[in-house]
């Protein structure tokens, strides 16, 4: 049995010195959706709770799925705007790794709120507890928060309440962190793009390439960045009815209910190669309108590339198969 790193003095030196476990409830999943509540549990280097904080946020719009988060327009009417709580939020995040369940979503919502407030979030790295659970090989039935909580015996009191979700995640993250430390496992840390690298466009206009632009009421912020190369070789085409495999090339076409950048980030974090076009090497095309005449759907039909819709893709993302042993990343 491995020594307990909390007593044996073998805690990995490269691990972060502190964490901010975050949960936000929002009006929806799109670029123009807003945060309606936020909670932060600050943890020390070994995952012990230092303090916690919670706030409602006036989204300045319809609150969205009240049946999920329970926050009505009347409740939120007297809440502070995000700009009013940005400084306190920053104090909670400062110098820490942001930890969340499906962290790319929480970070994208937080990043946009800071951008709207013309501020910069003081966080440079995030850690997704879904990714960590996969690294640890936890025997979970799925990767929902309730499954992770159940694995560690953490009791949920108020699901979809930001403070309780953050508490549950903090309590589940601690044993995961210790298990990673005991096995000297590299934490799946990802970069949080500094908002200073984002720029506001003077007018909505067309989006070109991956340049940053802000479109109030619709477009949101789009990061100006080049996605890192996929480290896995392309295993070939997706087999309908089977699993996605790390290294597969996935392309997207047309409108999606979840914003495109979020889907792309989820795919990349799962180990897939996000392609900007369709070629003979493309493993699968994701589109909600397979009968459209876009260049990607036309090419997919010509090449015989498998086509699936967004719902099927997000379901498959929950359990992406690991890359085959051996081999190196393919050029295509």
3D architecture notes:
With 332 residues, this protein is an alpha/beta fold. It has two domains: 173 residues, 2-Layer Sandwich (Nucleotidyltransferase, domain 5), CATH 3.30.420.10; 69 residues, BRCT domain (Rossmann fold, 3-Layer(aba) Sandwich). Helices cover 31% and strands 17% of the residues. It has eleven helices and twelve strands. Helix 6 runs parallel beside helix 8. The longest helix has 21 residues. It is globular and about 55 Å long. The N and C termini lie far apart (43 Å). It holds the Pfam family BRCT. InterPro entries: BRCT_dom, BRCT_dom_sf, DnaQ, Ribonucl_H, RNaseH-like_sf, RNaseH_sf.
Structural shape? globular
Strands ordered across the widest β-sheet: 3-2-1-4-5-6
CATH homologous superfamily title of the largest domain: Ribonuclease H-like superfamily/Ribonuclease H
Largest sheet: 6 strands, mixed
Residue share in helix: 25-40%
- Report how far the terminal alpha carbons are from each other: 43 Å
Count of helical stretches? 11
Protein traits:
alpha/beta, 332 residues, exonuclease, Rossmann fold, 12 strands, nuclease, single chain, Nucleotidyltransferase, domain 5, 2 domains, BRCT_dom_sf, 3'-5' exonuclease activity, globular, RNaseH_sf, four-stranded parallel β-sheet
């Amino acid at each position: 049995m491995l020594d307990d790193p909390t007593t044996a003095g073998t805690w990995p030196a490269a691990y972060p010195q502190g964490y901010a476990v975050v949960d936000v409830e929002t009006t929806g999943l799109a670029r123009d959706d807003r945060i309606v509540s936020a909670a932060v549990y600050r943890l020390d280097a070994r995952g012990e709770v230092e303090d916690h904080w919670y706030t409602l946020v006036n989204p300045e719009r319809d609150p969205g799925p009240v049946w999920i988060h329970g926050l009505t327009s009347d409740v939120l009417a007297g809440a502070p705007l995000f700009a009013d709580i940005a400084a306190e939020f920053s104090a909670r995040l400062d110098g820490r790794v942001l930890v969340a369940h499906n962290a790319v979503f929480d970070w994208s919502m937080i990043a946009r709120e800071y951008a709207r407030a013309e501020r910069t979030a003081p966080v440079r790295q995030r850690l997704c507890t879904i990714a960590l659970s996969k690294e640890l090989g936890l025997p979970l039935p799925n990767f929902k928060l309730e499954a992770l909580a159940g694995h560690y015996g953490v009791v949920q009191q108020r699901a979809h309440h930001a403070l309780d979700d953050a508490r549950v995640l903090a309590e589940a993250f601690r044993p995961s962190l210790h298990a990673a430390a005991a096995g000297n496992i590299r934490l799946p840390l990802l970069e949080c793009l500094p908002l200073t690298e984002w720029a506001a466009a003077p007018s909505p206009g067309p989006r070109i390439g991956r340049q940053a632009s802000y479109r109030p009421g619709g477009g949101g912020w789009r990061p100006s960045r080049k996605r890192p190369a996929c480290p896995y070789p392309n295993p070939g085409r997706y087999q309908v009815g089977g699993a996605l495999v790390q290294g597969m090339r996935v392309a997207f076409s047309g409108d999606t209910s979840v914003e495109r950048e979020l889907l792309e980030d989820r795919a990349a974090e799962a180990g897939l190669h996000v392609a900007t076009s369709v070629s003979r090497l493309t493993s699968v095309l994701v589109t909600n309108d397979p009968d459209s005449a876009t260049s990607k759907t036309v090419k997919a039909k010509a090449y015989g590339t498998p086509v699936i819709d967004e719902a099927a893709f997000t379901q498959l993302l929950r359990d992406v198969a690991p890359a085959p042993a051996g081999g190196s990343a393919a050029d295509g």
